[in-house]
Design goal:
The protein is mainly beta and about 550 residues long. The chain has three domains: about 1-45 and about 295-545, no CATH class; about 50-130 and about 245-255 and about 275-280, no CATH class; about 140-240, Beta Barrel (Elongation Factor Tu (Ef-tu), domain 3), CATH 2.40.30. The strands form six sheets. It has a 24-stranded mixed sheet that branches. Strands 6-9-20-23-27-31-35-39-43-48-47 form an eleven-stranded parallel sheet.
Amino acid sequence: MIIKKAQEKGSKLLAFVCLAALTGTASVAGATYSLPADRSVVWQGNAGVQGDIPSRTTIYTTLSPSGGDDTSAVQTAINNCPSGQVVKLNAGTFKVSSAIQLKSGVTLRGAGMGSTTIQGQSGMSSGFVLGVGTSSSLGTSINLSSTASKGSTTITTSTPHGWSVGTILLIDQLNNPTGDPPVTNIGDNGTCTWCGRGNGTRSMGQMAKVIAVPNSQTATLDVPLYWTYDISLTPQATAVSSPVANAGVEDLTVDNETSNQGTNVQMVGASNCWLLRVEVLGSNMYSVYLRYAYRNTIRGCNVHEGVPALPATGSQYNTSKAYGISFLTGSANLVENNQIYHLDMGVMAGGGPMTGNVIAYNYVAAMYYAPSAGWQVDTFRAHSAHSAMNLFEGNWLVGDCKNDNVWGSSSHNTFFRNRNTLDTTRASSAWDYSLYANNQYYNIIGNVIGTTGFETAYSVAIGSGSTAIYAIDTSVSNTLRHANWDVVNKGVVWNGADDHTLPASFYLASKPSWWGSTQWPAIGPDVSPMYPAVSTIGTGTPWGSSKPPLSPPALLKAQ
C-alpha cells in the first residue's frame, strides 16, 4: 500500500511513504537513480590515492626500539630511505622527543596496531607527533582569465603561470553571501578568518593536480572542476609549495597521550599519501589534521580517545578538544573503513574549503560532547565555510550529522546508504540530521534512520524540543530527501517520481577487495536486512580490524 505524504524539494513536491519497504525491498521499478548533475560531482575514480595504496615490498632498513629516545634513529632512516622503499619498525615502543616527519616516496611500517607504537614524550614542542606532509605554503596566486565551468578539466590564466605537470593547485574565488547557494564565512560566532585564503573571504574552491600544460597560460587538471568559477568573483589558482607525495604510514600506533601535542597525525601539504591500519590514540585538539591535502587515503584505522582519556560516556571534553579526522582545505581525499570513537566528534569539515572528499564505510560511535551531558553527540559536523560536494556513504553513525552555521556556509553534500541512530541517553537537540541556516542543497538518499521509540517526529524546525529524524532551519528549502527509511514513518519516504532503484555506491564500481563477507551493499532500504546485525559491528571488515571498547547493544539498538 502506498500512502501519499508531503515533502519539499525546493518548492512543494509530492513524496510517498511505501509501507511495503518494511520488508527492506523497494516496490517500484524503474531506472537506477542518479543524483542531479548540478548537485554532485564524479567521485568514482577521483578520490583517494591514485591507483590505490601501493604494496611496497623492498625493506630499506629495520629498526627496534632502544628503550631511550628513538627520534634520531627513526628520522635518519626515513631521510636516507630510497623512494619506493620501506622503513620497518619492529614491535615495541619507539619514544620520540620531537615529531617524526615522512618524506616523499617512503613507507613507514610497523608490526601492527598495538604492537608497534610511536609514542610522543612529555616536553615535545613540535605541535604534532607524526607528520605525513608537515608544513606547506602557497605560491603566487594567478587570476583566471575567464569563467571556468563545472565539469571542465581546463583552466586558463590571465598571465603565464609557470606550473608543470604534477603541480598541486588550490583553485578558489571570492565569497558571494547573496548567491545561490550563499557562500559566506560569517556565522553565528562571527567571522571565520581561517576559512579560506584572504582571511576567509575565499571559502569556495578545490584542489587539483596539473596533468598537462598545453601552453604557458593553460593547464589541464586530473579531476573535473566541482564548481563554476565565476569571473566576476575573481577566481584564482595558487600552487602548493613542495608537497610531500606518495608517502604512507602502515600497521602501527601513534600515541599522543603523554606528549599532549595539539595534533596527533598531521597531513599538511600531502598529496597521494596514506594512513593504513594505523591506530591514532590520544587527541588533544586534532586526531588527524588535513590541510592543503589532496588525494590522500585513510583506511582501516582506529581513531580514538582524547587527552586526557575520559572514564565514562557521561563525561565531557572541553571546547575545541578531541576532534577526530578534521579537514581545513582538502579535496578528493578518501576516509574509508575506519573506527572512530571516544572523541568529541568523528569527522569535522573545517572549511577553507573542504570539497569533493569521500567519507565512507566508517563506524563512528560513543562520542562525547562538550556543552552538556544531555546534548546529542555529533558524528559529522560541517562547522566552517565552505564544505561542498562531499560524499558520506555507507557509514554506521551514532549521533547527529550536524551542519551548523557557527562559522558560515556549506552546500551540496550527499549522505547515501548510512545507518543513522542517536545516543538515546541524550535527548537535547536530538536529531539524526540537522541543517542550520546557510546549509543548502543537501542530498539525503537511501539511508536507514532512527532508533525505535526514540525519535518522535519526522521533520522539525531547528530549535524544536522534539527528538526527530530531521531538524531543518526555516530558511533551508532545497534539501533533497529520497528513498530513506525512518522509524517515525516505519517505511520509505520517496521524493516524487524519482527512480526507486538505488545504485550500490556513488563512488565504487563494485564491491571493494577489502570488504569481506558482510552483505553488499551493507545498508539501505532495498537490502535485507537493511543493515548488518549489531553483533557483527567491529568484528572485522568492513568496520575495522578490532572491536573498540564499547558495549554496542547499549548504544546501537536493533530495530
